[in-house]
Amino acid sequence: MLNAYPYYGYTKGDGIFPIEYALFQPLPSVKQIIDPNTLYHYNSMFDAMVDAAYYSIDALNFKDIPVVATETGWSSFGGANEPDATAENAETYNNSMIQRVLNDSGPSNMKTWEDYEGHKLMQQLPQQQQQQLLAQQQQQFRQSAMQGMGQMQG
Predict the structure, then answer these.
(1) Which partner from 46, 74, 124, 151 sits 20 to 30 angstroms from 32, CA to CA?
(2) Biological process (GO) annotations (predicted)?
(3) What stretch of H or E contains 4?
(4) Shortest CA distance to 77 belongs to which of 6, 145, 4, 8?
(5) H or E stretch at 2
(6) Is 15 left (phi over 0), alpha (psi -120 to 50) or beta?
(7) Region 86-105: what's the mean pLDDT?
(8) What is the mean pLDDT of residues 16-31?
(9) Residue 83 and residue 126: Cα distance in Å, rounded?
(10) CB–CB of 6/90 below 8 Å?
């Protein structure tokens, strides 16, 4: 099980990684992230984190151990020294993660999305129901983010 939080990798990177990379947003060719050890091109920090877990397991000579991301997300409210911890960035990250799961995309070594039971069930739904479920999840996220911000401000 892996708890993957690109927000922390992004903030601890001190400007090394573009925010788009951490939020699943397209990168211009001059900002592409390439792993110097494998020469893989990564479209998101999350994918690189999952692949790093696979490579670490492999380096210990373990095989066929699935990596399942059990937690992920983006901080929606931060202090003065955390300008990227916003509800907007959290919504972008979560919506992009949902789309990523629905599109069944991932890093080169990722094997778990196909095996994940919730993903299998989602893929069996007609496209319209998948879109309705996505809209419901987005609405629930917006409501919880707004409630959280109200509690922190109030």
Answers:
(1) 74
(2) carbohydrate metabolic process
(3) strand 2-4
(4) 145
(5) strand 2-4
(6) left
(7) 89
(8) 90
(9) 39
(10) no
DSSP labels for 31-78?
A: G-EE-TTT--EES-HHHHHHHHHHHHHHHTT--S----EEEE---S--
Q: Coil, helix or strand for 141?
A: helix
Q: Do the beta carbons of residue 2 and residue 53 sit within 8 Å?
A: yes
pLDDT at residue number 121: 59
Give the integer Cα–Cα distance in Å for 43 and 23: 10
Tokens representing residue 23 in the block: 């939020």
Contacts of 151 (CB under 8 A, 6+ apart): none
Q: What is the mean pLDDT of the chain?
A: 78
